[in-house]
Design a protein that fits this description.
The complex is a heterodimer of chains A (353) and B (508). Chain A contains 14 helices and ten strands. Chain A has helices spanning 61-70, 77-89, 103-114, 129-132, 138-148, 154-161, 171-177, 194-206, 237-241, 253-263, 269-284, 293-306, 313-319, 327-352; strands at 30-31, 93-96, 118-122, 134-136, 167-169, 183-187, 208-211, 215-218, 224-229, 244-247. Chain A is an alpha/beta fold. Chain A has two domains: 26-133 and 170-247, 3-Layer(aba) Sandwich (Rossmann fold), CATH 3.40.50; 253-352. Chain A is elongated and about 85 Å long. Chain B has 508 residues and is of the alpha/beta class. Chain B has four domains: 2-133, no CATH class; 143-261, no CATH class; 271-295 and 329-502, Rossmann fold (3-Layer(aba) Sandwich), CATH 3.40.50; 297-326, no CATH class. In chain B, the strands form two sheets. Chain B has a six-stranded mixed sheet, sandwiched between helices. In chain B, helix 7 (108-133) runs parallel beside helix 12, helix 14 (271-294) packs parallel to helix 22 (490-502) and helix 19 packs parallel to helix 20. The longest helix of chain B has 26 residues, at 108-133. Chain B starts with a helix and ends in a 6-residue tail after the last helix. The chains are: A alpha/beta (353), B alpha/beta (508). The interface between A and B is large, with 45 and 41 residues.
């Protein structure tokens, strides 16, 4: 699903999509020189001039929620609404929330729901524009010089080696140079430096990239951009200003139950509910790493595999390492939740007796 | 103010047709729209001139209110908000609220402020109408002054609990009113809504139960925390409504920050201001460090950039490019006194601590009373201010028996813990009043700390006048510090930042 194969020539005609007449070489969109951009995003009006990120038929937040649900993602009310608004306004969404609430999954689901390709940029400390945006393929440039040095004039070589042929496009440039709109996921933006954030600003507000040797490359389609952050540091105001903000939190019992049912449909109703209640109990403890939604799904599947009938203390003890993954956390959970389950079990037997 | 406003339409009022009076009084939605044309003087400090009519103005006013609570809302955010509103049906409360929230509140903290303010703002719009129209609500017969005492407390308590556990919104509201009537000492409350709410909650014996554990234990007193919050919100609303009726004016808008962010009283409560200063502190430290590091370069050749540059000279690497040195992040050790002698100041300390943690990446924080305890991890994990203060109070393990500050012991422990990490690049900042309660100050140990660290600063929350009186031993520590500052207001904190950044790094 994720293609990170750098395409050396980003502007070539793609035989795979002959139906898009807008697919012209990237050079036609390159403007020489700077400072003559086509105005701010605001002046372009609400409707972006590029093919929009989402088919026009998504006409309401409810429909967005329905589509996401089809793609296997049960979005909360605000998540669906913000996603919908972002597609209509053509703005990036900044998604924050604790680890494991489905921030990355939202982007994947959106890509499935809209049939758009997902381009993913995983951020880490030290990520720079050469790895995120573009890089000159200097080996190829050298070869070209060697090959032409003898008989070609200086002018020609100089013009040639800074052509798009020698540009290695990285995820960000790929995302905007694709004639088909894509879903661009910039994951864990809080892991990068502030310098990198600053570099993103041009891309996020105007959907263009300035390459000193080449000029400004404008987007051929407007990607739907999703940035995720685990809140490990404050992002800059400038970045936040350009984004819509979405705070994802752990879902309530009912919604998480639906999510688990979606992924483990064979699990018995009472067991599933009991399980989710326990997960919520564990989350309420002061843990190093509270269990994520993915982990509760894993747990549900594990219980299915084990053929567990009910969630008693012994089953919990054997399987709790699926949701709790720190030595100290294990102790805390065994102490609080395990004991509670044991006493519940006693009560249960007494009641039946 | 109310009756005069009701007269002829104000200037510009004829541009927008008025809905019939009955409708405006009946539905909150019409109240919102009508409220925009009212004079702003009632509405917590807005200019008293006539605002433009229509709903847009209300959204702008909301933005203005949010700004006053410290949110960074620029024109672009407001434009986005209007764009978003044009995409959702804003007759739907949830969509309306979410659309505004996603464009205006850009962090979790902002969102909390937004939610609190949003309720009050649009609640006020209705109330303002009522004040202006001279409407009062006839009270239920049960909550008159006379038969207030006859309310059976136990049954009231039971009813409230039942409603919190599973009652409808309306029930909760009615019971909130009843509780206020019974316990609110109408007209002679503390004057601060938040205090009254908590008093009523206590007298009803309501306790929150976040994890749902108490129910299993069979504790009948505890109720689910979420629902309890809901009930408190109702109480707050009703109390405000009552005060509006009593005083014929709206409560001031400012106290929201103090009430809803729950900062105890301290010389400095403006968390947003502390955050601003901390950000400045960080930026200046960072640029200064970079300037210092710029002269010495590590000579690691960056092959990629050298090759790229060589293309200008036909592939001959004439100019070497070196890998740039990563900007060195300032290493700050922050030691924060949390003892009782500085209780009022410790809140300020904590907010500074908290703010600095957001801004720095390499920062180790310690809190101490008799012993020292590292809280860096706590801050890494927890971002809510309240949770942090709670955690420090409950299990930092900084107090032994007496609860009195023992600076001497603290230095020895700090030295033992960090002796290998302290270096010429480290900056040690101590926040404390230097009152040792007559114990050995161990100034020599502090001296060793200062010697190992590049720079040492002391911030004292007491006015300079009180230093070295009583058991304050500021004099013993002062010689070892690169600077000592009194620090009990934002302005002084800023002075500290300036001094900090103007001082050159001491040569190792």
């Amino acid at each position: 699903m994720i293609r990170i194969i750098p395409r050396a020539i980003i502007g070539r005609e793609r035989s795979t999509c002959p139906s898009t007449p807008t697919a012209k070489p990237i050079a036609s969109r390159i403007k020489k020189g700077f400072g003559e951009t086509s105005g701010t995003g605001r002046e372009r009006g609400l409707r972006p001039k590029y093919p929009g990120p989402v088919p026009a038929e998504v006409a309401s937040a409810e429909e967005m929620a329905a589509r996401l649900a089809e793609a296997g993602y049960l979005a909360g009310e605000s998540a669906a609404l913000v996603t919908y608004l972002a597609t209509r306004l053509g703005k990036p969404v900044l998604v924050e929330g604790p680890a494991g609430v489905g921030k990355t999954e939202l982007a994947k689901a959106l890509s499935r729901a809209t049939g758009r390709r997902l381009v993913r940029l995983q951020c880490y400390e030290g990520l720079d524009e050469a790895k995120a945006l573009y890089e000159w393929n200097y080996r190829k440039q050298l070869l070209r010089i060697q090959a032409e040095a003898a008989d070609a004039g200086w002018e020609r070589v100089q013009d040639d080696i800074f052509g798009e042929e020698f540009l290695l496009s990285r995820p960000l440039l790929q995302a905007i140079s694709d004639p088909e709109p894509v879903v661009l996921l910039i994951d864990e933006i809080d892991k990068t430096d502030q310098e990198f954030e600053a570099m993103l600003l041009e891309l996020l507000s105007d959907f263009q990239v300035s390459i000193p040797e080449l000029g400004v490359i404008e987007a051929r389609s407007q990607p739907f951009v999703l940035l995720t952050s685990n809140n490990s540091r404050e992002l800059t105001e400038a970045l936040k200003r350009r984004c819509l903000y979405l705070w994802l939190d752990y879902p309530d019992v009912e919604r998480e139950l639906e999510i688990v049912r979606l992924h483990a449909p064979d699990l018995g109703d009472t067991l599933a509910r009991r399980m989710i209640e326990v997960v919520h109990m564990v989350r309420a403890l002061d843990l190093k790493k509270p269990p994520s939604i993915a982990e509760s799904i894993d747990w549900a599947r594990a219980l299915l595999l084990l053929g567990a009938e009910e969630l008693d203390a012994s089953v919990f003890e054997r399987t709790m390492s699926i949701i709790v993954k720190h030595r100290t956390d294990l102790d805390v959970v065994a102490d609080r939740v395990g004991v509670k389950l044991a006493s519940d079990g006693l009560l249960g037997t007494r009641r039946t007796a | 103010m109310g009756s005069s406003g009701r007269g002829g339409p104000p200037e510009g009022g004829d541009r927008a047709p008025r809905p019939p009076d009955g409708l405006r009084a009946a539905s909150p939605q019409s109240g919102l729209i009508g409220g925009a044309r009212r004079s702003g003087g009632l509405y917590g400090g807005l200019p008293s001139r006539q605002g433009p009519p229509g709903f847009d103005a209300r959204v702008l006013e909301l933005g203005d209110e949010l700004r006053r609570e410290g949110l960074a809302i620029g024109t672009s955010e407001l434009l986005d908000a209007f764009d978003a509103l044009s995409e959702v049906g804003w007759a739907e409360p949830v969509a309306f609220r979410e659309a505004l929230a996603t464009t205006l509140a850009k962090s979790q903290e902002d969102r909390r402020v937004f939610d609190a303010l949003f309720d009050r703002f649009f609640f006020r719009a209705v109330e303002r109408e009522a004040v202006e129209k001279g409407l009062t609500e006839r009270r239920l017969s049960a909550d008159g002054e006379d038969d207030g005492r006859e309310i059976d407390f136990d049954s009231l308590r039971e009813a409230v609990r039942a409603a919190i556990r599973g009652g409808s919104d309306g029930e909760m509201r009615d019971l909130a009113r009843l509780s206020i009537a019974a316990l609110g000492r109408r007209g002679e409350g503390s004057g601060v809504v938040g205090v009254d709410v908590q008093r009523i909650r206590r007298s009803l014996g309501l306790r929150g139960d976040p994890a749902g554990e108490a129910e299993a234990r069979g504790d009948p007193e505890a109720v689910p925390t979420e629902r309890l919050r809901e009930f408190e919100r109702h109480l707050r609303r009703e109390l405000e409504r009552e005060s509006v009726e009593r005083t014929r004016s709206l409560p001031p808008a400012r106290p929201l920050r103090e009430l809803d962010r729950a900062l105890p009283s301290a010389p400095l409560q403006d968390l947003a201001a502390v955050h601003r200063v901390a950000a400045q502190l960080k930026r200046r430290l960072a640029t200064q460090q970079r300037a210092a590091g710029g002269r010495r370069r590590t000579h690691v050749v960056d092959v990629r950039r050298t090759m790229r540059a060589s293309l200008e000279t036909g592939g001959v690497p004439l100019r070497l490019h070196h890998r740039p040195r990563r900007p060195r992040r300032p290493e700050v050790y922050l030691l924060c006194d949390v003892s009782t002698s500085v209780t009022s100041a410790s809140v300020f300390f904590l907010s500074v601590l908290h703010a600095l943690h957001d801004a720095f990446r390499k920062l180790r924080s310690f809190v101490f009373v008799e012993r020292i305890s590292e809280v860096t991890e706590l801050f890494a994990r927890e971002r809510s201010f309240e949770a942090i203060s709670r955690a420090i109070a409950s299990d930092a393990g900084v107090a032994d028996v007496s609860g009195y500050t023992d600076y001497g012991r603290v230095w020895l422990e700090f030295l033992a813990e960090t002796v290998d990490d302290l270096g010429p690049r480290s900056t040690v900042i101590v926040l404390g009043d230097a009152r040792t309660n007559g114990r050995e100050p161990h100034a020599a140990a502090f001296g060793r700390v200062a010697e190992r660290a590049g720079r040492t600063f002391w911030m004292n929350p007491e006015p300079k006048l009180y230093w070295n009186y009583g058991d304050s031993v500021m004099r013993a520590y002062e010689p070892y510090c690169d600077g000592v500052f009194e620090c009990w207001s934002t302005r002084q904190l800023e002075t500290f930042v300036n001094a900090l950044t103007s001082t050159r790094v001491a040569a190792p």
